[in-house]
Amino acid sequence: MVLVIQVKGIYYDLKIRKAVLKKIGLATKFSMIKYREDWPEPEIKFPRQVKVKTLMSGICASDLHQIDVNLSYAASILARKENPFPMGHELVGEVIEIGSEVEHLKPGDRVVMSPIAHCKAYGFEKCPSCEAGDYQTCYALVGIGDGSELEETYGGRLGFGGFAGGGFSERFLAFEGQLTKVPFEIPDEIAILAEPYSVGIHAVLKKLPKDTDTVVVTGAGIIGLMIIAAIRALGSKCKIITLARYQVQVEAAIKLGSDKVLTERSRDTLYEEIAKLTDGELFKPALGRKILYGNKGPDIVFDSVGSEVTIDDAFRFVRTNGTVIIVGMALGAMKKVDWMLQVYKELDVLGSMMHGLEEFQGESLDTFILATRFLNENQSLYENLVTHKFRVDEYKKAFDVASNKGKYAAIKIAFDYR
After folding, report:
1. Which CATH number fits the domain that encloses residue 24?
2. Would you say residue 32 lies in a domain?
């Protein structure tokens, strides 16, 4: 008699017909996901894989964008090839089984996970992105290996890849190269922040602010907060102005190191406040909102929202010759951003995607190593950022809270399997 183990979990069901119906408003709220209590427990298929028991898993804004089908269509090239596939990438779990070629993990180890399975994780020769330390743009994400026989074992060219998940399930599989051990001193509620913290660290290291810089962080959800934390943990004493919406975000931003937090909803008034705080000069065009012009004003804007409104705002209030770093994903094809501002003001516009290999203080380190190091160094900073916890079968309520953070005074919402 074979014992069949079943697990609870939320899987994403990527079918074009369903996505189109959802996009045009003819599908239900949760039509793109499936919750079941009888998913078969995943079994290790490849020698570099690890089976993990989920302890906690956070809900990311990108998870909500997936459910609502409002990510860019371009994201589809990075989707998992199997279907349906488990969701959830902000997690902490415990190793319960390892493949025959796993070298540095053992059952009982507590781990956090990167959703990026790069060349080294698969066992491929490094692609050009991985050679440069840019795991976040690894060719394996779109199903391109090294042309070896190993590539065929994973399904052949274009037959594997995509960003990984699994935290919305009681058990999941990952490659050893995706997992980072967590010191036992770090509580689960803090360890769960390792992935979003890695996103923040990677973004900040795109252009580490000088001590004399003034920085605006747009958005004070968990990514915006982790950008603030990363700026301070990486050693910058720059002036940080945070744009927040809710009081709970104001308090968290100040605790993590923001010098000033603005909650102004009027765009005109917001621009005036930013100009006043940065000695910038605003000018009124013939039509449209004001524009800050000249070499005084915010030096760098980290946009953790990434919507048409916030990107257009950033172009308007960043100083001439300043830098805008887009981290948020609430955007697709845009019609309302005045891109001529990028030309007129000679702005550097950078995108920051996930995490990779970072250069910091003469070391080349995986972003997760830095994240777990910083989390462990000053744990009190990160306490109580997980504000709401739910069982996975309470997913409808959990997603409601995640979608209405102001109403529930929420920051990070997590599924708790402990």
Report:
1. 3.90.180.10
2. yes
